[in-house]
Amino acid sequence: MIEFLIEVVGEFVLQFLLEVLAELGLRSLTEPFRARPHPVLAGIGYAVFGAVVGGLSLLVFPQHLTPPGTSRVLNLVATPLACGACMALLGAWRRRHAQPLVRLDRFSYGFFFAFAIALTRLHFAG
């Protein structure tokens, strides 16, 4: 049971760290491109970007971090929900400190990004 919890927490930490790194990269790119795209297009863009990041994560962690079975499907839902919530909290913190926000600082975009990572890893990890 402890091993399962460590694996699930490991998957969450991996996805959240990748998401924060992506957010930092996006933050550095937002200044030259101030025009805001359509929200649906932005969501699709974050999902594609998440799939790419998920594919790149397979180079470092080629194996699943969660055991086979129900826990992998649960991870596909629970981890993106948790990552989306953490990104929303980070966005709220940035707003309180008068820092500029990117779309990834919102729950829905954080969820789509993390879900794409999780789906890619579920499908392609060994």
In words, what does this structure look like?
The relative contact order is 0.21. This protein has four helices and no strands. By secondary structure, the chain is an all-alpha fold. 76% of the residues lie in helices and 0% in strands. The chain has one domain. The longest helix has 29 residues, at 2-30. The model has no long low-confidence stretch (mean pLDDT 86).
Q: What attributes characterize this protein structure?
A:
126 residues, mainly alpha, 4 helices
Helix/strand layout:
Layout lengths: L1 H29 L8 H22 L9 H27 L10 H18 L2
Round the mean pLDDT to the nearest integer and report it. Answer: 86
Question: What multimeric state do the chains show?
Answer: single chain
What profile does the largest beta sheet have? Answer: none
Unreliable runs: none
Distance between the termini: 22 Å
Structural category is: mainly alpha
Instruction: Count up the helices.
Output: 4
Strand segment tally? 0
Helicity, as a percent range: over 70%
Report the portion of residues in β strands: under 5%
Element-level helix/strand string: HHHH
Radius of gyration: 15 Å
Domain module tally: 1
Shape: globular
